[in-house]
Design goal:
alpha/beta; Carbamate kinase; nine-stranded mixed sheet; two-stranded antiparallel sheet; 39% helix; 18% strand
């Protein structure tokens, strides 16, 4: 069933905010289940799939407490939030009979595996979905950078950024009705125009590793499955001649 796949091993970066649904912060069980269903449909195509999930939905709830805190401590709190989301997604996927492993860059062996590159690759080869938690394990780096780093380490064919919109625009389409959408961009264009698709470190790392970045809407039913087949609606960021 892998004949129509354009990308056979991918990493999807999902923002923590995508898991909130209509809530102010935290996890929306219905949204978690819906995204897990999108992931299962891609897994059933035969795609080797890994995930990085942000922590904004959890950290938003404690951000007031973090006000005035030193950056490193606040970042570690954010990393722990991503592990909470990773465990929640693991539970949602396994309820759908998708075999899953969580690996954390911060050691917490009672809860999940430590991040070990070769073990993660072996999980992918055994058709398990691997969820990477705790970012890079270091403060001052975002989960976008963690996603680009893990995609490079796993030898992924593409890095998928799941967002609320169907690609990259020159302005926020929710605020600017006539914002222009891009079908294709060069890494340099994203950095030069400051399009804020992902942070500069993530874009630079993807460029160095020659990994295309595909930006698509996680809220379009079946959209994820279309993207890994090179179909559907998305913006691709890659090196252009």
């Amino acid at each position: 069933m892998t004949a129509d796949l354009k990308y056979r091993r991918v990493l999807m970066k999902v923002s923590g905010e995508a898991l909130m649904g209509d809530r102010d912060y935290g996890l929306d069980p219905d949204m978690l289940t819906r995204i897990a269903g999108e992931i299962r449909s891609v897994h059933e195509l035969g795609v080797q799939l890994c995930l990085v999930i942000g922590g904004g939905n959890i950290f938003r709830g404690v951000s007031a407490a973090a006000a005035g805190m030193e950056r490193a401590s606040a970042d570690y709190m954010g990393m722990l939030a991503t592990v909470i989301n990773a465990l929640a997604m693991q539970n949602a996927l396994e309820r759908l009979n998708v075999s899953t492993r969580v690996q954390s860059a911060i050691s917490m062996q009672s809860v999940c595996e430590p991040y070990i590159r070769r073990r993660a690759i072996r999980h992918l080869e055994k058709d398990r979905v691997v969820i990477f938690g705790a970012g890079t394990g270091n403060p001052f780096f975002t989960t976008d950078t963690a996603a680009a780093l893990r995609a490079s380490e796993m030898g992924c064919d593409a890095l998928l950024k799941a967002t609320k919109v169907d690609g990259v625009y020159d302005a926020d389409p929710h605020r600017v009705p006539d914002a222009s959408r891009f079908e294709r961009l060069d890494y340099h264009d994203v950095l030069a125009r400051d399009l804020e698709v992902m942070d500069a470190s993530a874009i630079a790392l993807a460029r160095e590793s020659s990994i295309p970045i595909l930006v698509f809407s996680i809220f379009e039913s079946g959209g994820f499955a279309k993207v890994v087949q090179g179909k559907g609606r998305f913006t691709i960021i890659e090196e252009t001649p």
